[in-house]
TrEMBL record:
Keywords carried by this UniProt record: Oxidoreductase
Record's protein name: SDR family oxidoreductase
Similarity-based family: Belongs to the short-chain dehydrogenases/reductases (SDR) family.
UniProt keyword Oxidoreductase, yes or no: yes
SMART domains the UniProt entry points to: PKS_KR
Transmembrane parts of this sequence: none
Pfam families hit by this protein: adh_short
Top-rank lineage group of the source organism: Bacteria
Species of provenance: Stutzerimonas azotifigens
Amino acid sequence: MSNRIEGKVVVITGASSGLGESTARHLSSLGATVVLGARRKERLDALVEELTAAGGKAVAYATDVTRQADVQALIQGALDSFGRVDVLINNAGLMAIAPMSETKVEEWDRMIDINIKGLLYGVAAVLPVFERQNAGHLINIASVAGIKVFSPGGTVYSGTKYAVRAITEGLRHELGGAVRTTIISPGAVDSELKYGSSHDASAKNVVEFYKQAISADSVARAIAYAIEQPADVDINEVVLRPTVQEF
């Protein structure tokens, strides 16, 4: 019996570690064809080798989501290799926590470039494909910090994740019908995200906060749940946290 994931072509950004890597493994184990994008091509290649050795189908492309041409090439690579794209998971992200008074403008720019513009580049690349197919699924990784401002130090990061939720909800209104949209809003999940802060005090606080983190597999299972629903069912948002997380 089909699990409604088997045979789907799934593109994942930020796939070289953490949520993206775990999601690639999980979906591949369920029979999905995975197309992996990230900057660290050597890690992607190792993951592709692992998945294909286990009988899966996977390819990888060096992708910096802050470059629109890279994201376009990632989607085109999926089309060239497999002829379609069924799901795009906009997962690449940066969390640089610091008080606003530190005025870390370069980090603000970087978060906006990756968390918002990188996601929009993915949308721009894949929407024409979904429209031609009259089918598709956009899954955007937000955060509980997009529901409640992460404080202290998370003002700009939260702003980017509020934007992810707003953009995804707007897409749901605009697209409807054949194209599904899902927001995944995790709490503390074990990944490299916690190492994105250059402000020493904030970095220590983040690492301490993430001691309660749950595994990235938890997010992978939530993503699979959204994908495996019948075509007329749209899981609009999943919020998941460690049971002990108060924020």
